[in-house]
Design goal:
With 287 residues, this protein is an alpha/beta fold. It has helices at 11-20, 44-54, 68-73, 75-95, 128-143, 163-172, 190-203, 219-229, 272-282; strands spanning 2-6, 25-30, 37-38, 58-61, 100-105, 147-152, 155-156, 178-180, 184-185, 188-189, 207-210, 217-218, 238-240.
Length: 287
């Protein structure tokens, strides 16, 4: 296949490029980073020009503004990037008859229940980030029937800038750790997600999918597992509630996702603990 990946400078986009190039011709586009093509997804004409010139077999749309606190402070920008930007790409692909995959989030759900959300449960976003991503989902659903919507959660990747690195950096520096106990979701390793997406698009079974590492855990439990596995079992973590951790965007409380649809295609991600172990091993920690 000939594949265009938007947001290719991001952690997931860059990992997808590496994964896809094992078996396909893949091109990366973004507004920054070392990618083949510059692309501002807020520019409809630019999206269509790139799609038309490359004529890809499929577009994987990972471009997004994922700073949840930034989205809360500037919801209009969040809607432009995550909502209108996705609308632009969906419309360009639909006009050219090209399938599109959109990476969405567990935060499209409200977190009010206590069992995992399945693919066709009703979204009800509670913050600006979740709302903007849900807007993107709706745009793709309405515009391009040949689509995949992939929801994921709590991504961790090599290269810094995520929860695991923040926890380990604080532990190494001897800083006190306070972590929330009542936010629960699925930690997901980008390498596992990229592999699952590559397998999914090969099926040509369009629809909505939840691709997360198996199992759910609280932020506190996630942090405790990381520290114990990386040799910091003596480092204490103060348990707090999400209400005690003040920030512009309050995430939903319980947004564990369940993989029903992809599992029926024999696409399953390993347990999140195994994903963390693989990540830590690749980072040089002796387990």
């Amino acid at each position: 296949m000939r594949i265009l990946v938007s947001g290719a400078a991001g952690k997931l986009g860059s990992r997808l490029i590496k994964q896809l190039r094992r078996n396909h011709e893949a091109f990366g586009a973004d507004v920054l980073g070392n990618v083949e093509y510059f692309l501002d997804i807020e520019d409809y004409d630019a999206c269509c020009s790139l799609v038309n010139s490359l004529a890809p077999t499929i577009v994987l749309h990972t471009a997004a503004w994922t700073d949840v606190n930034g989205c809360a402070l500037d919801p209009a920008r969040a809607l432009r990037v995550n909502g209108v930007g996705t609308h632009n790409m969906a419309a360009c692909c639909a006009t050219s008859g090209i399938p599109m995959l959109y990476v969405s989030t567990n935060e499209v759900f409200d977190g009010a229940r206590r069992h995992p959300y399945r693919e066709y449960d009703r979204p009800n976003p509670q913050n600006a980030y979740g709302h903007s991503k849900w807007h993107g989902e709706r745009a793709l659903l309405q515009i391009n029937p040949r689509h995949y919507i992939v929801r994921t959660a709590w991504l961790f990747a090599h290269g810094g800038g995520n929860f695991i690195q923040a926890i380990l950096a604080a532990a190494k520096a001897g800083k006190p750790l306070r972590v929330v106990t009542n936010e629960i979701a699925n930690p997901t390793y980008t390498s596992d997600l990229a592999e699952a997406i590559a397998r999914l698009i090969a099926t040509e079974r369009f629809g909505t999918y939840h691709l997360v590492n198996q199992g759910a855990v609280s932020r506190w439990g996630f942090a405790r597992y990381v520290l114990d596995s990386a040799g910091f079992s003596d480092t204490p973590i103060e348990p707090i509630t999400r209400q005690q951790w003040q920030r512009p965007s309050l995430p939903p409380e319980y947004t564990a996702l369940e993989n029903i649809e992809a599992s029926s295609l024999a696409i399953n991600l390993r347990p999140w603990q195994e994903g963390v172990d693989a990540f830590l091993k690749a980072e040089g920690f002796c387990l």
